[in-house]
């Protein structure tokens, strides 16, 4: 009777409709006999289906990543931290974890972007504010990277990489014209490499025309325009490596802001945690100079032979 009650309970919990079937010969052989009563085993339709168990971390379907946004906005966008984990929930980078909440600000690396494509030509923009960007922190330096500037021209605002001496209220020029004579560019202006004089300090250089800045974007860095050869320009990167690109590639005049970014003193381990840097395991730390044998210069040779003095020889 207990088995019959259990069978009836499982049938009521089944997610699929119950099918009344007469037990076949194979099922009769596997039947159980209790108190001289023949009770068939529960059919597969009466059993609960096995639900797969999700053992990895999954993001909510309502969450929209900032990378999937196609419409540009100057407003800070919410960003979720990954903690060094990939889409399966497994740790890929052990040095990332924690840190203060950050909001992402979309940087427009294409300096020459006219507001109206039907009216191409040089245009000016005004710097509204210059501030630091928490999302431009890089892992090989001790502090955040370059500052960013909010510029406005016409009915449009956008964030760009600020130069060293850029301040609120400045007016910057964006041009794609290459004249017969080199221009007298000011710091913060964007011009094609073919329009700049040789020896100009530049940053935010394009590798291909219209692709956007890809080189010399880190804080305090700058390149040098060395020479122009047959419609191309040869520039020197901060690593002293030379690169040849088309002279129509856009570059910004001057040095990237936040030159002293690597001179700040962290002071304590908790400050690194604020920046989202997680320490390594103490088991694998390298030993300092206290461990092992000390490396010292060899002692002078000890001699037990009394050599005659110079006065005695004379």
Automatic annotation (TrEMBL):
Gene3D superfamilies: 2.30.30.30, Nucleic acid-binding proteins
Large ribosomal subunit protein uL2 RNA-binding domain segment(s): 84-174
Classification via Pfam families: Ribosomal_L2_C, Ribosomal_L2_N
Keyword Phosphoprotein: no
GO cellular component: mitochondrial inner membrane; mitochondrial large ribosomal subunit
GO biological process: mitochondrial translation
SMART domains given in the database record: Ribosomal_L2, Ribosomal_L2_C
Signal sequence annotation: 1-21
Localization per Swiss-Prot or TrEMBL: Mitochondrion
Molecular function as annotated in GO: RNA binding; structural constituent of ribosome
Keywords: Mitochondrion, Ribonucleoprotein, Ribosomal protein, Signal, Transit peptide
Domain of life: Eukaryota
Domain spans labelled Large ribosomal subunit protein uL2 C-terminal: 185-306
Entry similarity comment: Belongs to the universal ribosomal protein uL2 family.
Cross-referenced PANTHER family: LARGE RIBOSOMAL SUBUNIT PROTEIN UL2M, RIBOSOMAL PROTEIN L2
Protein name per UniProt: Large ribosomal subunit protein uL2m
Source organism: Eschrichtius robustus
């Amino acid at each position: 009777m207990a088995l019959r009650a259990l069978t009836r309970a499982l049938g009521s919990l089944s997610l699929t409709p119950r099918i009344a079937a007469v037990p076949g010969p194979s099922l009769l052989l596997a039947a159980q006999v209790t108190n001289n009563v023949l009770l068939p085993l529960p059919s597969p339709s009466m059993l609960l289906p096995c639900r797969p168990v999700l053992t990895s971390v999954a993001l909510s379907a309502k969450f929209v990543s900032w990378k999937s946004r196609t419409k540009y906005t100057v407003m800070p966008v919410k960003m979720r931290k990954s903690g060094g984990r990939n889409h399966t929930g497994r740790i890929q980078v052990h040095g990332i974890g924690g840190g203060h909440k950050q909001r992402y600000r979309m940087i427009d690396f294409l300096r020459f972007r006219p507001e109206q494509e039907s009216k191409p030509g040089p245009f000016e923009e005004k710097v509204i504010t210059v501030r630091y960007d928490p999302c431009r922190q890089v892992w090989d330096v001790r502090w955040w990277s370059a500052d960013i500037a909010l510029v406005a021209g016409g009915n449009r605002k956008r964030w760009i990489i600020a130069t060293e001496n850029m301040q609120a209220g400045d007016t910057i020029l964006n041009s794609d014209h290459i004249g017969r004579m080199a221009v007298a560019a000011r710091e913060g202006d964007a011009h094609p490499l073919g329009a700049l004089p040789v020896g100009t300090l530049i940053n935010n250089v394009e590798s291909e025309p219209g692709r956007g800045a890809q080189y010399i974007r880190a804080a305090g860095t700058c390149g040098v325009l060395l020479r122009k050869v047959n419609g191309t320009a040869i520039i020197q990167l901060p690593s002293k490596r030379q690169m040849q690109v088309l002279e129509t590639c856009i570059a910004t005049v001057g040095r990237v802001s936040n030159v002293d970014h690597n001179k700040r003193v962290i002071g304590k381990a908790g400050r690194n945690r604020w920046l989202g840097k997680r320490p390594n395991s103490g088991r694998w730390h390298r030993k300092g100079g206290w461990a092992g044998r000390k490396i010292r210069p060899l002692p002078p040779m000890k001699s037990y032979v009394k050599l005659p003095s110079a006065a005695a020889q004379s």
